[in-house]
Amino acid sequence: MQLPSTLLALVFTLLSPTCAADDVLSPNNASLLWGPYRPNLYMGIRPRVPNSLISGLMWGKLEDVEKKLRHNVDMSEGMARYGWTAYDTREGGRQIIEDVGNKINITTEFIKHSEGQSAGNWGLRIRGIPRPDAPEDLKTTVVFYAAMEAMKACADCKLEAREQLGAGDDTSVHAVNIDVSHPKLGTAGIHIPVSVDKDGRHEGTVVKTLNVTEDKLWQAKSTFLDTLKEQTKDRTEAGPIDLVLRNAPSNGNLHLVQMICHGEFQFDVLYSSHTATRAMTSAGVTRDLETAVKSFHKTFVHVFSPKAPFNTDQHLGFSETVFSNLLGGLGYFVGTTKVDTSKKAIYAETSGGFWEKSEDAKKHTTPERKGPYELLTHTPSRAMFPRGFLWDEGFHLLPVIEWDADLALEVIRGWLALMDNDGWIAREQILGAEAESATPAEFITQFPHIANPPTMFLVVSKFIDMLKGTTKYYGHESLYLSQAEAGKAVVNALYPLLKKHYEWFRRSQSGDVEAHSIPYANLNEGYRWRGRTPESNYASGLDDYPRAEPPDISELHLDALCWVGVMARTLEQIAFFIEYTHDALSYQNHIRGVKTNLDALHWEDKHNVYCDTVLRDDVHTYACHKGYISVFPLLTGLIGADHPHLPAILDLLRDPNHLWTDHGIRSLSPENKKYGVGDNYWRSPIWININYLIIEQLLALAKTPGPTQQRCREIYIELRRNVVHTVFNSWLQTGFSWEQYDPVGGHGQRTQHFTGWTALVVKIMAMPDMGTGEGMKDKINEYYE
Ligand code: 6A9
Asked: With a threshold of 0.90, does the pTM exceed it?
């Protein structure tokens, strides 16, 4: 069968090692070109094009500008609330920022248009409304800036600002215009009609054009403040620093457009590419935003409407906000990455001490700069972790794939393109100077022997179910799901990459099963996360969760084995789908081995619990720490309804002396010596990603006949309610979703506005209640009295 040319282009794009933005964008990706893709900023827009136009917003109370100018999202600035209330990646949406310190609420509305292959238009509306405690004469300075990256090296690039004055005697600035020219974006204009105060006068507006080094572009805040300080220096008489830039619009790589606004204000930034059939206008922003917000609500109800007992308007509003912030955390990153390849030899490690002590590890090495790479990815937290994390992204995409399957696949494609020749993908993606600046030095270097849970396989598995129709899709129109050939083509393109990563994982994280001398064990299926240090295992994602101490090369990690099971199961599913039967059969073999070894190597008979294992004096010994690890075989779906150890896992989950709390499943049992000790990151708190996986498996078991079906159903109902209740209540109380939740009080803790995997609560609410019994009604009333 002949593939239509758009499909061929699409498959070609998928297979090409560089990113789509460098090639011709497929029609489906044109709507992903522009976005608020600098999620580390309260508002920062850029296209998915390296070395191009970046822009951003800053504001603050005029007199306090030195101390309170807002730019980067920062928890210490004490915003009462901020984030998107409705946002769709392909359309745009609305964000509200309650800036207590500056006594003003800022609304940012972003809308975009794409016209086939043309570079597209966008509009940004900025509104300021003084808070009730603001002084009558509140003056706010608002700075919008536009900058052209790598301008020097680009002969065809241009960025030039002009003022547009009033007619006749009116010499006030009515608008600022910036001409844009860039090889990938074409020519375009940015039109900024200035805000008008309540007496109808145009607010004071200046444009300062600068020619600065690259680092000064993304650090626009300090560039702006430094410029004010510089001009203060020229002054002859003493006084406080200048608050307003000297007007000087011209040609340059950075344009600071500063307005001094009195009281309430509103203005638009309108970007129109010259190839577009119609320019972006203020009326267009109003109209399109309204349409976008409406269609967001409409689609949302189809895809994620909360089910009983959460079928209330309040829960719907909560769910929409949480999901909007997941989508709004999408960032585009480009730049080099630091990689230390000197420890790759660890693959071959067979005997001797733990690798940290090995000669190889002691070698002093300088990490190499690799890349540049680019990546479109959601981010766990705009304030604290505005960059890509491999296993977080799998969790992010679980809801996203139901909303916009093509977007999820585009993101997966981008991540898989980062794979090196061996099949490794760096766990943390810290691309470029801006991302590096937000990362503590000790976390920047990535090591190609270090893995991270392959959660993206869970997303691909969902996608196959959607293609097969066993999972219904209610989201955005999807090319892959509406055209069978396109769907098959994308799976065919992803398969070799997923397989390569799988093979890398099996090779690089392999454990020494043979040394454990278990007669009935499968000798191939045993794994150990590399890169362990005493008291921690960052590769696993569960950082400080207790493991064998001291670390030892004879360790076999239960979760690593389970993740191999997840990958093998997904690859088997794909192989059958694209009719690679031979491959499918070998994956089946691996899965059998994994399941055998779960019980042969990791099941501890005396205490009825699954554990990590390690050799002590050459003897197979268990390293048991009741907690998330113990329930891994369940949460990864490797324990069937009739598995003999299922009841023991359920006991552990439901036991308030162990993992059960009224707020969700906690990471560690209080009986453990390490419970709550040290940094207490994964040593008691409740994490929503893990709770989601548990809930999903309980639901599957609740629907499958078996000896514990009824029990699974009961625990499912209760756990689902507890988890939703926890995240929802904390959101009501604080205005934010959180990185983790306290197992005692249930309150949100650590990172505020953690809009990453905590957003899985959206999916948890959308799951069926499964409660019909009378007893359940009381429970519901308990919550909502
Ligand atoms: C520290 C400090 C401004 C830790 O959500 C991302 C990851 C998870 O993948 C992992 O499972 N978080 C979890 O245990 C946060 C990781 C932060 C590491 C860098 C930066 C902030 O400095």
From this structure: yes
